[in-house]
Each structure stands twice: as structure tokens, then as C-alpha cells.
Amino acid sequence: MTVPDGVVAQLQELGMSMYEAKAYLALVAAGEPLNGYEAAKRSGVPRSTVYETLGKLTASGATYEVRTDDDTVTYLPLPPASLIDRLGRRYESTLGALRAALPSIAPPSRVHLIHNLTGRDPLLERAGDVVSGARHDLFLSTWPQEGAQLDGLVRDADARGVAVTTLTYGEDEDLPGHAYAHTLSPPAVVLENLGCRLFVAVADRRECVIGGFVDSDAWGIFSDNPAVVLVAVEYVRHDIAMQLVASRFPADEVASFWSTDDDLTRLRSDHGFAASALRAGGADGERPSGPRRGGRRRGRSA
């Protein structure tokens, strides 16, 4: 029996034991009723426990007993499509009950969280929680590499009436809601300045994930601290406003100003500091030293 990688583990996540998952898959692959001996042989479940395992599957409705004329008991699986539908209904019913019950148990929060996220998958998974939890508005600043992994959740948010606003670094013309491309600097220049692909997701002005991605590594934070959330959402709004303002002026004048203005040059002089700061925070290391400060000068406000 050849089983795709991960299927046993996925059935375990839905409530089956490892032996139950293996026995069920053996019955599905057989295409005909099996007795306990054959089910054990094909699944790798020990013969000493196979009947107990098949009994649990039958009790849960995942398999059926079939008795032959000589009173031999064999087993047939519930078809996979029916099993998936049944599990979906069962878990949705359970989740619905929990959605109604758990909020009434939890008292109003007295402590606001700020906790570190280290690694690409944990950061994007927490960002997915933020996107899925949005009910009113969602602000995103993302690159195509990370945006693609959240695309389905963002579209779901848009479909349920959430006001989605996205600033994207790179070409993507099919984003839901209001989407704006970062045009003042090419993505390669932004990446050189920051040292990472900066990512921000803010839901309902209530919680946020802020992080940076470098190849397959990532560091960041989740927070529901109002001050952190305010800074995150204003960062996205301000960056979008800058793109809109720049779009109203001749491109050559904007490019010249962006590349030659002394104040802008000074503000971009700390190449890579953003990535260093996020990496140090994610590793609970010492705070990296900032760029060396130059002398004060009079001029336009930064």
C-alpha cells in the first residue's frame, strides 16, 4: 500500500490514532472487504490490536462490518469523500459551539502581548491568525513571496466585507480590496536599504504582526499592544500616502528628488539595520547598535 506523505498524520490531527489511520487507509486501498488478518497484514497494525482498532473505526462510523454467509466478519471503509464531509460537519459543529462559548468565559484583557516570532512558518502562521481574525479592516505591507501564502485568507477577509488595504513590493495586479504598488524605490533598492523583506499585517487596529524575511529565515513579533498596533497601521498608511503623492508629480522629478535629497540620503544611510534589529530580537540577543550619528544640520524636516 502506497500512502501519500503526511496522510496518516493528517488523519491523526482529525482524531484517529495512528493504528486507526493505517487500518482505514489499508481498507480504502484494498477496494474490497478485508478480515482482521488481512487488514493487519496490509496496514502494519499488530494482529494483537487490529480487532480493537477496527472496532473503534466501526464505532466512529469510519468503517462498516460486513458478515459473510459463513458468519465471517469483514470490514469496508466509509468512502473517503464521505469521511471528509462527515469530519467537516462534525468539527464545524464543535467549532461553532466553541465560538459561542469561549468568548463568554474570557474576561477583558488586562495584559497586552508582545512576543517574538522566529522562523518563516511561525511568523506566517501567526499572520494568518491576524488576517483570519479581521472583522472590519485589514492593513498589509507585503512582498509577493509572503503575500502568495496569505492570498487565500486575504481573499476570504475581503469576501466577508473586511476593508482590505495592501501596499505591495513587486508586480501583483490581482490583489483584493485597495492595493498600491511601492513605486518610489524599486524592490531591489528597498531590500538593500532594509536588509530584509519587511512585512506588516494589522487587523481592526487591534492586533498586528511585524516581521522581516531574509531568504528562508524570518524574525518578528505579534502584538495587541495599542501603541505597537498604532505605529504599525500608521506605517502602512503613511507609506501608501507617499506613493499617492509621488504619483501626482513627473516621474523624473520624483526620481531625482528621491536619489539626491540630502535628508533622504541620511535617512537611508543605515543599510541593513532593520534586518539586524529583527534578527537580534528574534534570537533574544543584544540590541544591535544603530548607525553612527552625524552632526546636526539645519534643513527640511525629515
Write a brief structural summary:
With 302 residues, the chain is α+β, with helices and mostly antiparallel strands. Helices cover 51% and strands 18% of the residues. Strands 3-9-8-7-4-5-6 form a seven-stranded mixed beta sheet, sandwiched between helices. The chain has a two-stranded antiparallel sheet with strand order 1-2.
Topology summary:
Blueprint: H1 7-13, H2 18-30, H3 36-43, H4 47-60, E1 63-67, E2 73-77, H5 80-105, E3 114-118, H6 120-133, E4 137-142, H7 144-159, E5 163-168, E6 178-181, H8 187-194, E7 197-203, E8 207-214, E9 217-223, H9 226-246, H10 251-260, H11 262-267, H12 273-282
Describe this protein's structure.
The chain is an alpha+beta fold. It has two domains: 72 residues, Arc Repressor Mutant, subunit A (Orthogonal Bundle); 169 residues, Endonuclease, Chain A (2-Layer Sandwich). The chain is 51% helix and 18% strand. It contains twelve helices and nine strands. The strands form two sheets. The chain has a seven-stranded mixed beta sheet, with helices on both faces. Strands 1-2 form a two-stranded antiparallel ribbon. Helix 2 packs across helix 3 and helix 3 crosses helix 4. The chain is elongated.
